[in-house]
């Protein structure tokens, strides 16, 4: 269920990096690295891969390079060179065993007396260090040890070592003091899992031998992962636009057309300062062939479709910086984090979950920057986008801005900080605009029920998908028109043929993508007609949050800058109460203990048992009795070994060659479902259930 544990995804630093001792003759071969080449200065061209990582290279991480495959002659030459360079080096003392801590006790007595006599070196690490968990190991052959570990312990062959593996849960490692001659057993899932990570890192660095501190292996796994997330993972996922990296960030590998080969940036019509910024970037780096274009004031589905062959990155919020020494003004983008290393664009609802993690890691500036970008997107593009690429201009994602702004506001000083108050007021002005113009306006609003649906605009086939992604759907039409897939795609996108059934298919496909749950049988062929419990729970939360914000920050009187209407906190609380009543009327099933989606097209409640039922708890719209009923009936159906599953197996239905598995269905689980359920259950007093689910995840 979690993607954190894969062996090939770990690439991180540690705080206990080991340098080889230059005064130890056993380390001569290790220390005999090739002569360092003259250093050349390289101008910084990108900030994408700038990590403030003190352990970012193998020399710092594991010490100087070692290689067991070097010839004996090379080792002897290195030893001779080292001996010549250190004429007064002490000879290595004889290695003997340590019994009953006698050698350590003797050393302690001598130290107290101020004497400096040498003591015998033990075949294992010093007993004092052992007692502190600071033993060190020498792994003579990284590749062989990694192969042995995987062969013996990874019995399910998934490149992880977990409690589900049936291996002996023990491996022998050579001690550093004996230079690998004597061995110690390393036992247990946690230590072996950490060892798997360490060996993989060493291999990725090209190391064949390493010294390894035991502290790296027995570190508490929660502390270890938390430290790595804070010190390494977030840095790898953080982006910030500047003059040097925009070409790389604007490049798009999803679209394969001749016009898409050059990176391109689209700038809102009322942002000339950003247009000049990107033009400057293009002139500074002409080899990038960066293209910069203005967007029109009115962005229509027809216009968005016209950009399918010339996709580009959409400009985001920037702040002005002044060089204190020169007085020169410049623009730089606010930082943001992406949901995966291959991405450079800012995503929608992923960003809320990301922001929660950033705040836990005290990365407040990045979380705040993401809210600034969303304020910008609502102002310039009319909505929080699926992501800031041109082909997403018609599509939003689940709305979390009000809560996202609140959690950031509380971390930047709250009401005691005037800048924070300005921030929260701007955030809610944007959220109200989004609420009115996107989620409670046609086509997303169903006027009969007063509930909202995922129902984005758009024309044609989504261009960001693989060329053959829809071939199964398009096959009957290629036969009907006696043409190839490529020819039909062009005919359909250009409006040369009209196929209402295909239009409806892509309407729902775009809606699934807007829902963030792409893909699931819950939404297939029907998504745009569903008033979902997840979306309407989020809008209830918007209404409650907006009421609180108007009361606290606007003097209980909000004048809308768009239509000049005046509302109070009471007006928004009425809206929230009305939505709660509608949700209970159309979606709540007392017997089933679930909130179900409601199909506004056929006017019928569905019966798809989804983990999004718990979003009603997160939003606070369920009654205590409804919450208890969900815990009694719905929770047992969705709780699995590793947390909440997306839906029940019964709701998903049978799987076959013609009905393949979907990633937002049983048996998969996703972090957003877990996080919102934990918070909702805890808010309603089911703290034990929340803790159990969190532990399972």
UniProtKB/TrEMBL annotation:
<dbReference type="GO" id="GO:0004555">
    <property type="term" value="F:alpha,alpha-trehalase activity"/>
</dbReference>
<dbReference type="InterPro" id="IPR008928">
    <property type="entry name" value="6-hairpin_glycosidase_sf"/>
</dbReference>
<dbReference type="InterPro" id="IPR018232">
    <property type="entry name" value="Glyco_hydro_37_CS"/>
</dbReference>
<comment type="similarity">
    <text>Belongs to the glycosyl hydrolase 37 family.</text>
</comment>
<keyword id="KW-0326">Glycosidase</keyword>
<dbReference type="InterPro" id="IPR012341">
    <property type="entry name" value="6hp_glycosidase-like_sf"/>
</dbReference>
<keyword id="KW-0378">Hydrolase</keyword>
<dbReference type="GO" id="GO:0005737">
    <property type="term" value="C:cytoplasm"/>
</dbReference>
<dbReference type="GO" id="GO:0005993">
    <property type="term" value="P:trehalose catabolic process"/>
</dbReference>
<dbReference type="InterPro" id="IPR011120">
    <property type="entry name" value="Trehalase_Ca-bd"/>
</dbReference>
<feature type="domain" description="Neutral trehalase Ca2+ binding">
    <location>
        <begin position="146"/>
        <end position="175"/>
    </location>
</feature>
<protein>
    <recommendedName>
        <fullName>Trehalase</fullName>
        <ecNumber>3.2.1.28</ecNumber>
    </recommendedName>
</protein>
<dbReference type="GO" id="GO:0005509">
    <property type="term" value="F:calcium ion binding"/>
</dbReference>
<dbReference type="InterPro" id="IPR001661">
    <property type="entry name" value="Glyco_hydro_37"/>
</dbReference>
<dbReference type="Pfam" id="PF07492">
    <property type="entry name" value="Trehalase_Ca-bi"/>
</dbReference>
<dbReference type="Pfam" id="PF01204">
    <property type="entry name" value="Trehalase"/>
</dbReference>
<feature type="region of interest" description="Disordered">
    <location>
        <begin position="1"/>
        <end position="50"/>
    </location>
</feature>
């Amino acid at each position: 269920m979690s993607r954190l544990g894969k062996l090939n995804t770990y690439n991180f630093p540690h705080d206990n990096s080991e340098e080889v001792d230059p005064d130890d003759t056993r380390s001569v071969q290790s220390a005999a690295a090739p002569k360092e080449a003259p250093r050349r200065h390289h101008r910084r061209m990108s900030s994408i891969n700038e990590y403030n990582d003190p352990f970012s290279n193998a020399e710092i991480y594991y010490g100087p390079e070692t290689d067991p495959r070097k010839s004996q002659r090379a080792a002897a030459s290195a030893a001779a060179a080292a001996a010549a360079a250190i004429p007064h080096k002490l000879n290595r003392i004889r290695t003997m065993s340590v019994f009953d801590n006698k050698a350590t006790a003797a050393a302690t007595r001598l130290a107290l007396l101020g004497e400096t006599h040498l003591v015998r070196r033990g075949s294992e690490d010093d007993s004092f260090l052992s007692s502190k968990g600071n033993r060190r190991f020498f792994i003579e052959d990284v590749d062989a040890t990694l192969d042995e570990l995987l062969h013996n312990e990874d019995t399910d062959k998934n490149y992880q070592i977990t409690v589900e593996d049936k291996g002996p849960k023990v491996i022998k490692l050579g001690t550093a003091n004996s230079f690998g001659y004597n061995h110690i057993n390393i036992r247990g899932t946690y230590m072996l899992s950490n060892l798997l990570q360490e060996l993989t890192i060493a291999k990725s660095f090209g190391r064949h031998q390493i010294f390894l501190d035991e502290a790296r292996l027995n570190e508490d796994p929660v502390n270890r992962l938390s430290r790595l997330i804070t010190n390494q993972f977030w840095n790898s996922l953080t982006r910030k636009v500047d003059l040097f990296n925009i070409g790389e960030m604007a490049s798009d590998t999803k679209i394969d057309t001749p016009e898409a080969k050059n990176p391109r940036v689209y700038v809102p019509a009322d942002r000339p300062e950003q247009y000049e910024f990107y033009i400057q970037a293009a002139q500074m780096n002409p080899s990038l062939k960066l293209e910069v274009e203005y967007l029109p004031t009115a962005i229509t589905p027809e216009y968005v479709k016209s950009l399918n062959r010339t996709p580009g990155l959409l400009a985001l919020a920037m702040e002005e910086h002044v060089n204190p020494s020169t007085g020169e003004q410049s623009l730089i983008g606010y930082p943001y984090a992406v949901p995966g290393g291959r991405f450079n664009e800012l995503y929608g609802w992923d960003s809320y979950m990301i922001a929660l993690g950033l705040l836990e890691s005290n990365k407040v500036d990045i979380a705040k920057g993401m809210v600034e970008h969303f304020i910008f997107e609502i102002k310039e593009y009319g909505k929080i986008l699926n992501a800031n690429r041109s082909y997403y201009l018609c599509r939003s994602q689940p709305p979390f801005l009000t809560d996202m702004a609140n959690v950031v506001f509380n971390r930047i000083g709250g009401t005691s900080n005037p800048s924070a108050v300005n921030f929260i007021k701007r955030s809610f002005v944007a959220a109200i605009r989004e609420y009115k113009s996107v989620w409670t306006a046609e086509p997303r609003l169903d006027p009969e029920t007063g509930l909202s649906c995922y129902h984005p605009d758009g024309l044609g086939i989504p261009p960001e998908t693989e060329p053959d992604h829809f071939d199964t759907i398009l096959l009957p039409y290629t036969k009907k028109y006696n043409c190839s897939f490529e020819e039909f795609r062009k005919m359909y996108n250009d409006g040369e043929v009209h196929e209402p059934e295909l239009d409806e298919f892509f309407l729902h496909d775009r809606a699934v993508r807007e829902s963030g749950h792409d893909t699931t049988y819950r939404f297939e062929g029907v998504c745009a007609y569903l008033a979902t419990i997840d979306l309407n729970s989020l809008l209830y939360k918007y209404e409650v949050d907006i009421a609180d914000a108007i009361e606290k920050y606007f003097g209980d009187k909000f004048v809308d800058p768009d239509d000049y209407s005046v509302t109070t906190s009471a007006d928004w609380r009425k809206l929230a109460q009305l939505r709660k009543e509608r949700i209970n009327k159309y979606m709540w099933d007392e017997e089933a203990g679930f909130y179900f989606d409601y199909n506004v097209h056929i006017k019928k409640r569905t019966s798809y048992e989804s983990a999004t039922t718990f979003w009603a708890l997160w939003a606070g719209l369920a009654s205590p009795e409804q919450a208890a009923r969900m815990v009694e009936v719905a929770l047992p159906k969705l709780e699995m070994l590793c947390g909440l599953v997306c839906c029940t197996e019964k709701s998903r239905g049978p799987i076959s060659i013609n009905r393949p598995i979907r990633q937002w269905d049983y048996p998969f689980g996703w972090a957003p479902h877990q996080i919102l359920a934990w918070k909702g259950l805890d808010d309603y007093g089911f703290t034990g259930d929340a803790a159990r689910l969190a532990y399972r995840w």
